[in-house]
Every structure is written in C-alpha cells, then in structure tokens.
Amino acid sequence: MTARQGTIPTGTPSGTVSGGNFSAARRLLAVAGVVLATLLAAAGPASAHNTLIESDPAEGASLDRAPDEVTLTFDQPVQRGAGDGVNQIAVTGPDGGQWQRGQAQVDGTSVTTALHPLGPKGEYVIGYRILSADGHAVTDEIRFTLTQHGPGGDEAPGQPADAENQADSDTDGGGVPVWVWIVAAVALLGVGVTVALRAGSGRS
Ligand SMILES: [Cu+2]
C-alpha cells in the first residue's frame, strides 16, 4: 500500500480503488456481451418455425390409387404438446367432407394420420397445424388429386362440422419460447452490471 502510493505521487487511495472497480465493471460488461452473443447464436437455428420438407402424398401429386395414410415430414422435431389435438391433419375431399381417421401421430420430425378409404376422384386438401420445435404453431395445406374413384363410398365419413369442432378446441400447447429465456438472461445481466457499477461509485 505505502509502496504503491510512493510510486504514484499525485494519486489518492480512493482514486485508485474507484479506478479498479470501474475496470471490473467494464470487464463484467465484456463478459455479458460474450454470454449474450453465445445465447443468441445458440437460439438462432431453434427460433425458426418448422418447415415442411417432404410429404406422402407429395404436393400436387396425381394418384390413381387412393393412399391409406398421410405423412408430413418437417426439418425439425414436432412437439407432442399436452393432450390430443395439439397436432392436427385434416384431409378434405372434393365434396368438402373429412377423410382423416383418428388423431394425428407424431414421430420425431413426422406427423401421420390414417385415412378412411377414399371415395370420389378429384382434389383433396391436406390441411395441417403442428407445434413447431420453437413452441409456435405452424398451419398450412398441400393438395393432391385422385384420378380414379377409390375403394370408399362417395360420402365422406366425417363431415365439415368435425373440422369446426376441432378448430374450436385449439390450444397452443406447452413449451416456453426461446426468446423468453433470452430476455430473462439479458435482464439478469443488466442487474449484475448495475449492481457492480453502484458498488464501484459507492466506494469512491
Ligand atoms: Cu416460431
């Protein structure tokens, strides 16, 4: 202590302490910046919605034999969510009726639904709503055409009313979005830096 004061004639002890704490706060800020950058880099890929990369039947396919199920494959895992109906696939026929059978099943990046034996030829719309890896719901549709009458009857086993009932029971599923964690981390770091700066100014 005394030796140090001797080497810096114009400096005061309090000035030295204050300077030390200031650089400590700057170091903390730098660390906070690195942590933030790392968090954002890690969150980047996960914060994008799931994208449909493959389907069976394929988008725009013309089929002379009726498929007995529909499988949609995404670029990221589909969340199962809580309870039935979180992930839905509805297959609407040319008559407007519903041809899907039972609940859609999630298997990793794929969602599958069984079909009643399709009947009328014409365009079928596969509407889907799935829970993305990032916690958001993704909704879209693809189409295929049945060029020959299928083994089923002309009338869809499920009527359009079923689809409306399903839509009413919409839930957003569980899962905390990644951005919530980022905001929480930034808030915590902000508190830490503020406390460090106050501690520094309080001692000078
Ligand atoms: Cu999203």
From TrEMBL:
<feature type="region of interest" description="Disordered">
    <location>
        <begin position="146"/>
        <end position="172"/>
    </location>
</feature>
<dbReference type="GO" id="GO:0030313">
    <property type="term" value="C:cell envelope"/>
</dbReference>
<keyword id="KW-0812">Transmembrane</keyword>
<keyword id="KW-0479">Metal-binding</keyword>
<dbReference type="GO" id="GO:0006825">
    <property type="term" value="P:copper ion transport"/>
</dbReference>
<keyword id="KW-0472">Membrane</keyword>
<dbReference type="GO" id="GO:0042597">
    <property type="term" value="C:periplasmic space"/>
</dbReference>
<dbReference type="InterPro" id="IPR014756">
    <property type="entry name" value="Ig_E-set"/>
</dbReference>
<dbReference type="Pfam" id="PF04234">
    <property type="entry name" value="CopC"/>
</dbReference>
<dbReference type="InterPro" id="IPR007348">
    <property type="entry name" value="CopC_dom"/>
</dbReference>
<feature type="domain" description="CopC">
    <location>
        <begin position="49"/>
        <end position="146"/>
    </location>
</feature>
<feature type="transmembrane region" description="Helical">
    <location>
        <begin position="28"/>
        <end position="48"/>
    </location>
</feature>
<dbReference type="GO" id="GO:0005507">
    <property type="term" value="F:copper ion binding"/>
</dbReference>
<dbReference type="InterPro" id="IPR032694">
    <property type="entry name" value="CopC/D"/>
</dbReference>
<dbReference type="GO" id="GO:0046688">
    <property type="term" value="P:response to copper ion"/>
</dbReference>
<keyword id="KW-0186">Copper</keyword>
<protein>
    <recommendedName>
        <fullName>CopC domain-containing protein</fullName>
    </recommendedName>
</protein>
<keyword id="KW-1133">Transmembrane helix</keyword>
<keyword id="KW-0732">Signal</keyword>
<dbReference type="GO" id="GO:0005886">
    <property type="term" value="C:plasma membrane"/>
</dbReference>
<dbReference type="InterPro" id="IPR014755">
    <property type="entry name" value="Cu-Rt/internalin_Ig-like"/>
</dbReference>
<feature type="transmembrane region" description="Helical">
    <location>
        <begin position="178"/>
        <end position="197"/>
    </location>
</feature>
